Amino acid sequence: MAPAQPDALTAAAIAAYNGGDATRAAELCRQILAADAEHAAAHQLLALICLGAGDARQARRHAERSLRARPGHVPTLLLAGRAALADDDAAAAAISFAQAAALAPAQPEPALLAADALLKLDQADAAAELLERATAAQPQQAAVWFGLGTARRQAGHPATACAAFEQGLALNPQQAGAWFNLGMLRQDMADLPGAITAFGKVLALRPDDAEAAVNLGIVQQESGRIDDALAHYRLAYRLRPDTFGRIAFALSAAPSGRLCLDIDALRRLLAA
What we know:
Elements: H1 5-18, H2 22-35, H3 40-52, H4 56-69, H5 74-86, H6 90-103, H7 108-120, H8 124-137, H9 142-154, H10 158-171, H11 176-188, H12 192-205, H13 210-222, H14 226-239, H15 244-253, H16 263-271
C-alpha cells in the first residue's frame, strides 16, 4: 500500500459515512486495517459505525484500539464512553468521560456526560464536584450550571442546588425544564413565593405543561390563594385528565378553604 493511500481511504470512508453509507465506510476501514491494524482513525470510525448499528461491545473494542494510538483524543474518549453506556457499563463510561473533561476543560459536553454517568452510579457528590470545576472553567455555560444543580439536588443539597439553577437561568432564562426543577426545589424548601414564580415561568414558556400547572396550583393553595389554585388545577385537568388524582389529593390533604370530598362534584368543578 502506498504511503498516501491510507489517508485517501480514510477520507473516502468518512465521506461515505457522512453520506449515509455506513456499509461502504466500514468496508474502507477494514481495507485500511488490513494494512495497518492499529490505524486510529479507522478504529474510531468503526467504533462509531458499530455503535450506530447497536453493537456496543464491538464499538468499545474499536474505541479502545483507537485510544491505544491516541490516548488523549477527546472525540474518541467520548465515543468510548457512549459505547460503554450502551453496554450498561456506567463505571467505564464515567472514567472515559472524566478523562475527556480533564483534557477539554473549556468544553461543556465531556463534563456533563461524566456527571450523568456518575449520577447513574449514585455518586452525586462526585458529579457535583466535577461540575463545580467545570463551572469555574466555564462560568458562562448555562447547561453546566443546570447540571450542577441536578447533581447537588440528588446529593441532598437543595440550597446550593437552587443557587446553581438560578445562576444558569440568569444566563439562559428560556429553559423551562430548569425553571421546573427550581420550582420543585423551592417548593421542597417551603419557599412558596419563589416556587410560584418558577412554575409560572414554566407555563409562560410551555403553556401545555400539565405538571407545572398542578404544582403551581399546589403552592398557590398552600399560600392561601385558592381561586388561583383552582384556575391552575382546571388548566391541568383540561390538559391532562390523569392529573385528577393529584389534584384531589392536594385539595384534601392541605389547607384550602374548599375541601372537596365529592369526587363527581370535583370533576364538575375542574371541568367548569
